[in-house]
Amino acid sequence: MNEPSVQNLLSQALSGQASEIPPVWLMRQAGRYLPEYREVRAKVGGFLDLCLNPKLAAQVTLQPIQRFGFDAAILFSDILIIPHALGRSVRFETGAGPQLDPLDVPEKVREVGTKFDQGKLAPIYETVGLVKSSLPSGVALIGFCGAPWTVATYIIAGRGTPDQTPARLFAYRHPAEFARLVGTLIDASVEYLTGQLRAGADAVQIFDTWAGVLPPDEFQRWCVEPTRKIIAALREEMPRTKVIGFPRGARAGLARYVETTGINAVGLDWMIGLDQAREIQRSKPVQGNLDPLALRAGGAALDRSVDAIMAALSGGPFVFNLGHGILPDTPIAHVEQMLKRVRG
Ligand code: CP3
Predict the structure, then answer these.
(1) What is the pTM of this model?
(2) Distance between CA 344 and CA 338 in Å, rounded?
(3) What dihedral do alpha carbons 80, 57, 55, 126 form, nearest 10°?
(4) Where are the beta strands (DSSP E) in 8-127?
(5) CA-angle at 8, arms to 7 and 13, nearest 5°
(6) 222 lines ligand 1 (CB under 6 A)
(7) Radius of gyration (Cα) for the chain, nearest Å?
(8) How far is residue 306's CA from residue 290's CA, in Å, rounded to a whole number?
């Protein structure tokens, strides 16, 4: 059983302890803004080939640690590995984002659960093990998955859409089939996160990137409940499992998500005001929430944004991060500027 180490700043923050300087990592910190990533990426055919190649995926996971000295590494993979293991065809075409075969016929949605091939996830666990054995001490390793709702939006639509109309419509028209799909994704996510924790992840993050498009009842049903079930199942086997939830755009539903899912910490998107963030921090550690565009812009705007976040949140349990993933055209010098500012 994996006992999360408290020898690192991230685990301390997730346990509710404040530190003089907060741990820092960035969502999507391994990626196209790094020349060393682009070099590795150019050597492999498809993006999935990189995710499923443990040696290269471990190398890419470690790149931002080696360059910047972040306090946590996040496993290099993608949330669409689960649809891949469920037998959906998943392709990444340059500039076009992910493409899956859309799945909008209820009869076909019913079949998804029958095709889960856990063997397809084995290379990911191998990556976790490789990274774990080469991380400097004091640096935490974060595993992750997409939340069932967010992963379902890609499975139904077959691509990213601005407001997830295909999945929202499908869930209204065919609630039983949609519930079944979400159930399949809950089970697969539990299996997948358990595998990552067993292989050495210190904590896991659940990315619910599309939580913000749902009205309150649907948010409760398709985001809060599935996340709560995943976390409860993880803790049955590993009671001390640390989970960060990232319900992007949740706003009105955020408090309920924080109270009822069982997360240890909440990742806040950049639209959450710092007063609300402080209020949430009274009951849970918070992570975030620098606007990725402030990091992209750099200069005085970046300094001002970092200072405001630090002033509001660094007195309590806190993990410094972005409010969403780093943008591919972010200059490296801006990341260095941000780190210096946070670490004083
Ligand atoms: O954080 C990290 O550094 C770890 C790796 C990671 C990736 N994707 C690598 C990736 C993580 C944590 C993700 C999560 C992910 N993937 C999410 C949730 C977080 C978020 O950003 O909203 C989502 C919605 C996806 C699905 C996905 N994967 C999309 C929409 C895209 C295309 C857009 C884009 O950013 O390119 C991807 C591709 C992807 N995932 C890339 C990387 C580095 C770029 C592909 C490439 O290098 O060719």
Answers:
(1) 0.96
(2) 10
(3) -50
(4) 72-74, 90-93, 97-100
(5) 115
(6) no
(7) 19
(8) 7
- State the closest ligand 1 atom to the C-alpha of 77, by its place in the atom list counted from 1: 5
Residue nearest to atom 2 of ligand 1 (CA): 28
In this prediction, residue 6 carries a pLDDT of 54
* Residue whose token pair is 């949740």: 250
Which stretches does DSSP call E strand in the chain? 72-74, 90-93, 97-100, 140-146, 203-208, 243-247, 265-267, 286-290, 318-322
Pick the residue whose CA is nearest to atom 45 on ligand 1.
Answer: 47
Amino acid at 110: R
Cβ contacts of 165 within 8 Å, gap of 6 or more: 157
CB 195 within 8 A of CB 234: no
Structure tokens at 166: 């295909």
Distance 28 CA to ligand 1 centre (A): 7
Q: Which amino acid is located at 28 in the chain?
A: R
Instruction: Give per-residue burial for 113-135: e unless 16+ CB within 10 Å, then b.
Output: eeebeeeebebbbbbbbbbbeeb
- In the prediction, which pLDDT does 113 show? 82
pLDDT in tens, 145-167: 999 999 999 999 999 999 999 99
**C-alpha neighbours within 13 Å on the C-beta side of residue 86:** 33
Q: Is 329 exposed, middle or buried (0-12, 13-18, 19+ CB in 10 A)?
A: exposed
Q: What is the pLDDT of residue 230?
A: 98
